[in-house]
Structures are given as C-alpha cells and as structure tokens.
Specification:
about 425 residues; alpha/beta; Adenylosuccinate Synthetase, Chain A, domain 1; Adenylosuccinate Synthetase, subunit A, domain 2; 2 domains; ten-stranded mixed sheet; 13 helices; about 20% strand
Length: about 425
C-alpha cells in the first residue's frame, strides 16, 4: 500500500491539513482513511474546500470532506469527547453528516476531560509573565496525569460506567487538591466557566461511548491492509516534547515515531512527507530566530490570530537552519510539501536564513535530555539570523534539505496545489 505520514517540520501551522485534504481528494493514489497519531483537540488544521467551505480540523482527519474517507484515532491520541461532538456538529452544518459514522477510536486512547482543561489553564495562569504558551485544551495535563497514574481515563472506559465513574472521581479529586478553591458552591475554572461534577461528566462521556465505535489495536491493521492510509501529525517537530526548545514545547511526540510504531506493528511502511511554509511562523512564546515584526504586521493569517492561551501569531523569514535541525531530529524525509508559495511570490521583502551569528549548525540530542534542550533554548533566545534574499524558495529548500519537493501549494484549496513528483523514489 502507498501509505503516507505527514509531519510539520516547523512550529506548527505549516498547512498539514490542506496537504492531507489534497492527498485524500486529489492525490496520486486513492486514500480510504486518515489516522491521527499524536496530540489531541488542540490541533487546528484548516481546510478550505474549492466550494468555499472552511473547517478547522482538530480530531477528525483533514480528509473528512472527501466522501468515504474514514478517521481513526490511534492509541497515541488524546481524545476530547466534548470537543469531538462539537466538531462533528460543525461538520454537519457544512454538509458532512456522517463524520461520526466514519470514525473509530482505539480503546487505549487517553481521554481529555474538563478537569484536565481546567488544570491546564490554572497552571498557565500561575506562571504569570513566564507562560510557556498553551492552547488551553488540557492536552499536556492529560499526558502528565497518565504518566503518574495508572487510572487515567481512556476511551474504552466509556463502555464501562462503573470504571469510568471511579476514574473521573479520582481525576476531579486530584484537580481540586492540586488547585484548591474556596469550599462550597460550584467550582469555577480560569475562564469563568464551571468545572462539572462527576455525574454530568459521566453522562456526557457514556453518551459518547454509545455514539462512536471504540475498537482494539487490530482494527488499524485491517485499515492498513484495506487501502492507502494517510497518517496526519499534529503541531510541529520544533515543538516536540523531547527535541523542541524546552520549555516552550508540547507534551506530544511530533515526529514520525508514533506513526512508524503503528505501521511496524502491522508489518507496513510509509512515505515520510515533511511540510513547511515558504516562510516561518510561530504561535506563542519561545525562540524564533528569524522573527520579523514588520512581517507579522504585514502578513496576518486568516485562520491564525492571537488567542488568550496561545498568545500572538508571529511571522519570520524562511529558516533553513531550523529546517536542517528538524530533519536531523526526524532522521530525514522522503519528500517535502511547501505551502504559502503564493505569499512568497507576492512579498519581495521575504528573506532566507542559512546561518545564525556565532552559532554553528544545530544538532539533535538524545530524547529525554531536557537540560540540553533548555540550554539550546537559552542560546536561541538571543541568536541573530544571517539573512539573504529569498530567491527561489523551492531551490533553497531542496538544497538545504537534500529532499525533493513533491507538492507545491499556492493557496488554501486543493485546486491551488501542484504535484511535481509522483513518488519520492
């Protein structure tokens, strides 16, 4: 089978959703399913259909506009049932009534609950001016809670009312003990809403369990044998939990690793497709060497703005140093997809960065060495880029990466994509 893994080689927001949509609707091989393999409801993969419909895909695969294309949420996903229901509702309004019918969820996928979300926001508020940046969706809290507890709620628990109640009760108790509030009355979160009691959360999650199809790990093996599958990553390699610039990172493995684990278990392999913009962007705080505040003001993004939890959307010049670092982290790619080339055509002031002043090439370290990553962050926070005219961004990217550009994107829809290589062979 011609399976493909799609991974963002930057800080996220490079256009993974529009690339997955193109692979499913116009790609060189038919696709029958999209598998999500990291992150959770914090993903924001914007897809604009040729007829003008727009949806920000968070948990459903970005191929859902294509009739019949299924979504599978693997065990590496963190599933938010409430956000998933809201997303399905938005898709129904756009003429996609069967998104939930085309969805399967691995029973071992962690559940993100209102208690994780409230903890996420409380922790970020407590950091004050030293915020790390967050989507405020509770994904990091979901991951960290599961690392220290063996009773973290999982998708399969939605089929077992008694076990789900025990786990939700323990989780809510943990939240109240970790972030104590005044006794008595309803418990507010840090956005002025209410943290629900266990019964309310239990009812919603049990209803979710009745509505969706929860499966075991063998289901994915069948999907992979039945047709071509696209593995859709979330966020970007430069935010990876082990290789990103700590502490401005995510609690998620954003490389190809999770997808390749799932493929290996089924005896399958896939093409590695890296995605990047023709210029650089970053959402929220953290190192961004090629940032240009003039570009930030001149290039507003219709689908990315300043948010209470994420912070501001920042824009900079094409960073070939960071690209080479991302490729070192993931061990290379078979091919690339470059998006926002229409912007590069229209902006003669865009530049490219081949080096940082006084800093040699960035090299990936072993996973788990967060002290090393934090030291790298400190260096990058004061680094200055060596800039030169952008020229032909495709040529610059191919020379820096040693990989061919398979797909060129000149706009948001699948009509705006140009296939330049049929395969990465």
């Amino acid at each position: 089978m011609a399976h493909t893994i799609v991974v963002d080689l930057g800080f996220g927001d490079a256009g993974k959703g529009t690339v997955v949509d193109w692979l499913c609707s116009r790609g060189p091989e038919p696709v029958h399913a999209v598998v999500r393999f990291n992150g959770g409801a914090q993903a924001a993969h914007n897809v604009v259909a040729p007829d003008g419909r727009h949806h920000t895909f968070a948990q459903f695969g970005s191929g859902t506009f294509s009739p019949g294309v299924r979504t599978h949420l693997s065990r590496f996903m963190m599933v938010d049932p409430l956000a998933l229901a809201a997303e399905a509702g938005h898709l129904r309004g756009l003429g996609v009534p069967d998104a939930l019918e085309r969805l399967t969820i691995d029973r071992d996928a962690l559940l993100t609950t209102p208690y994780h979300q409230a903890a996420n926001r409380a922790r970020e508020v407590a950091r004050g001016a030293a915020r790390h940046g967050s989507c405020g969706m509770g994904v990091g809290e979901t991951a960290s809670y599961a690392l220290t507890r063996d009773d973290a709620p999982r998708a399969g628990d939605c089929l077992s009312p008694a076990r789900l109640r025990r786990r939700l009760t323990a989780l809510r108790t943990w939240y109240l003990e970790t972030f104590p509030r005044d006794e008595g009355g309803p418990v507010p979160d840090d956005e002025g809403g209410l943290v629900p009691d266990v019964d309310a959360c239990l009812d919603a999650f049990l209803a979710f369990g009745e509505r969706v199809r929860i499966v075991d790990g063998e289901h994915l093996h069948g999907l992979l044998r039945s047709g071509n599958v696209v593995f859709e990553g979330a966020q970007g390699v430069l935010l990876d939990e082990w290789h990103g610039f700590h502490p401005y990172t995510t609690w998620s493995t954003t490389t190809f690793a999770n997808a390749e684990t799932l493929l290996a278990e089924a005896g399958e392999s896939a093409t590695r497709l890296g995605v990047l913009r023709a210029y650089a962007t970053r959402h929220g705080p953290g190192p961004f060497v090629t940032e240009d505040t003039v570009l930030t003001g001149a290039l507003p993004d219709p689908h990315n703005g300043t948010g209470r939890w994420q912070g501001s959307f920042r824009v900079g010049h094409l960073d070939l140093v960071a690209l080479r670092y991302a490729l070192d982290v993931v061990g290379g790619v078979d091919a690339l997809a470059v998006t926002h080339l229409d912007v590069a055509r229209a902006r003669p002031d865009l530049m490219r960065c081949r080096a940082y002043e006084g800093i040699g090439p960035l090299q990936a370290g072993p996973p788990g060495d967060l002290a090393r990553q934090e030291a790298l962050t400190e260096r990058l926070l004061t680094a200055r880029p060596v800039l030169e005219p952008l020229g032909d961004p495709i040529q610059a990217i191919e020379e820096a990466s040693g990989a061919p550009v398979m797909l060129r994107s000149y706009g948001p829809t699948s009509d705006d994509k140009l296939l330049t290589l049929r395969s990465a062979a």
